[in-house]
């Protein structure tokens, strides 16, 4: 009886040790292997205020937009239920590649309305999530 109990304990311990390497999972994510030069796309989320707690679209302010247009990029149900507004962005990076002085976009001067909106959002302590 004692031998049987000890054997079960050892088998269970060995099983748990071997399975622990396969047990990592974060909902909404998956492992991805990158090689040198692979493109990494950056996504943006909504902007919120600590005062008003009302989320605003990242592109409601005059930021550089992707050349192919803004597209929703929510990847799972949790992001939708939490009210995240995840969208694509023009920012691109390459894995294991040092780059500097990258031109992203050119924007004209802000109009009076854009300036006032930007100033209002800064005064409301808007921050990116």
TrEMBL record:
Q: Which UniProt keywords apply?
A: Endosome, Golgi apparatus, Membrane, Signal, Transmembrane, Transmembrane helix
Q: State the InterPro entries in the record.
A: EMP70 (IPR004240)
The species this protein was found in: Prunus yedoensis var. nudiflora
Task: Give the protein's recorded name.
Answer: Transmembrane 9 superfamily member
What broad class describes the main subcellular location of this protein?
membrane
A biological process from GO: protein localization to membrane
Cellular component terms per the entry's GO annotation = endosome membrane; Golgi membrane
Task: Give yes or no: UniProt keyword Repressor.
Answer: no
Q: Does the record's keyword annotation contain Transmembrane helix?
A: yes
In the record, what lineage is assigned to the organism producing the protein?
Eukaryota, Viridiplantae, Streptophyta, Embryophyta, Tracheophyta
Record family assignment: Belongs to the nonaspanin (TM9SF) (TC 9.A.2) family.
Where found? Endosome membrane; Golgi apparatus membrane
Record's bilayer topology term = Multi-pass membrane protein
Cleaved signal peptide residues: 1-23
């Amino acid at each position: 009886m004692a031998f049987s109990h000890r054997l079960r304990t050892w088998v269970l311990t060995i099983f748990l040790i071997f399975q622990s390497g396969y047990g990592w999972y974060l909902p909404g994510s998956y492992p991805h292997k990158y090689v040198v030069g692979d493109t990494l796309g950056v996504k943006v989320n909504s902007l919120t205020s600590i005062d008003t707690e009302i989320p605003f679209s990242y592109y409601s302010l005059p930021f550089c937009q992707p050349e192919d247009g803004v597209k929703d990029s929510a990847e799972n149900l949790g992001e939708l239920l939490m009210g995240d507004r995840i969208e694509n962005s023009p920012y691109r990076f390459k894995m294991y590649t040092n780059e500097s002085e990258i031109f992203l976009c050119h924007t004209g001067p802000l109009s009076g309305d854009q300036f006032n909106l930007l100033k209002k959002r800064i005064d409301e302590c808007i921050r990116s999530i």
